[in-house]
Amino acid sequence: MTETAGALELPSTLTPSKLSRFISCPLAFRLAYIDRLPEPASPHQVRGTLVHRALQLLFGTGRPAERTRDQAVAALDRAWSELSGTTEVAELGLDEPGEAAFVREAQVLLERYFGLEDPTEVRPVGLELDLRASVGGVELRGIIDRLDRLEDGEFVVVDYKTGRAPRAEQAQSRLGALHFYAFLCEQVLGRRPREVRLIYLRDQVVIAQAPTDQSMRGLRQRALAVWAAIERACGSGDFRPNPSRLCSYCAFQARCPAMARRVPVALAPQAAAAAH
C-alpha cells in the first residue's frame, strides 16, 4: 500500500476475528483494531475465557488418565484464581453470590464437555497454539484452542464454544475461523489437518468438517481480498458502518453514525477523541 497523507496505520496481522469484524462492519473494525477503543467485557465472554483456560490446564498437566472430572474442577478453581483479579472480571460488577453463581455456570459447561469426548483418549500437540504465516505479503495469525494428533499422525483442529450451537444453515459460516486455522497449519506445519471441529459445550453439539483444496484456496483468496479492502479503507479513512442485527450487541453504538449520528465515518482518531 502507498502511504498517503492522513492514512491510518494498518493492523500488524489479520486474524479470524479481524476478518469477520471487517466483513460484518468496517466501522466497528476500525474502532476496535485501529483506534483501539476499549470494549467492555460481557459475562459470556469472560465465562468463555474461564472455561477455555480450565480446559487448557486440564490438558496441559498430568498424564492422560488424570484428566478426570475432579481434575477439571481443580483446573477451573485455578483458572478462576488467575482470572478473578482482572479488569475483565471487575467490569462485571459481581458480588460474592454473583461470583459463586458465575463459577457454577462455568462448572456446568465443563461437566457437559465430558459428554462430548473422552479427554483421556485425546492426544493434544498444541494448546492455545499461536501460528503465524506471511501469505501474499499479509501476516496471518491464529490461536488454536487445541491441535490434536491422531494415531495415524494426522492433525485435528479443535475449537471450544460456550454459546449456543448454530442452526444448520448457520453452521458453515461458523467453520470459517477453523478453516483459517487449518490453512495456517498447512503453511506453518506443512500438513493440512484432516478435520476441524467446533465443540459447543452448552448444547453438547460437535460440528466437524474436512478441509479441502477448494476450502483452502477460498480461504486464501478471501483473506487477501479482505486485506486489500482494509488497505483501501486505511488509505482513505473511509470505514462505513454496516447496520445489521449485530448492532444491538455492539459496544460502539454511541459512536456510529448509522445509530446515533455522533461521529462522522471518516473522522480521524485525534478528532474523534476531541469530539468526546
Features:
single chain, 276 residues, alpha+beta, Lambda Exonuclease, Chain A, five-stranded mixed sheet, 10 helices, 45% helix, 15% strand, disordered N terminus, disordered C terminus
* Residue windows where pLDDT falls under 50 for at least 5 positions: 1-5, 262-276
Using the coordinates above, name the CATH class of the largest domain: Alpha Beta
How large is the share of residues in beta strands?
A: 15-25%
Which geometry do the CA atoms define? globular
Number of strands: 5
Structural class: alpha+beta
Q: What number of structural domains do the residues give?
A: 3
Strands of the widest sheet, in order across it, are 1-2-3-4-5
Helix share, percent: 40-55%
The tally of helices reads 10
Overall mean confidence score, pLDDT: 91
- How large is the radius of gyration? 20 Å
Biggest sheet features: 5 strands, mixed
Question: What's the order of the H and E elements?
Answer: HHHHHHEEEHHEEHH
CATH second-level architecture of the largest domain = Alpha-Beta Complex
Distance between the termini: 31 Å
CATH topology description of the largest domain? Lambda Exonuclease, Chain A
Structure commentary:
With 276 residues, the protein is an alpha+beta fold. It folds into three domains: 16-39 and 222-275, no CATH class; 43-119; 123-209, Lambda Exonuclease, Chain A. 45% of the residues lie in helices and 15% in strands. The chain has helices at 16-24, 26-34, 43-60, 69-83, 87-92, 96-113, 171-174, 176-189, 213-236, 269-275, and strands spanning 124-135, 138-149, 155-161, 195-200, 205-209. Strands 1-2-3-4-5 form a five-stranded mixed beta sheet. The longest helix has 24 residues, at 213-236. The model is unreliable at 1-5 and 262-276 (pLDDT under 50).
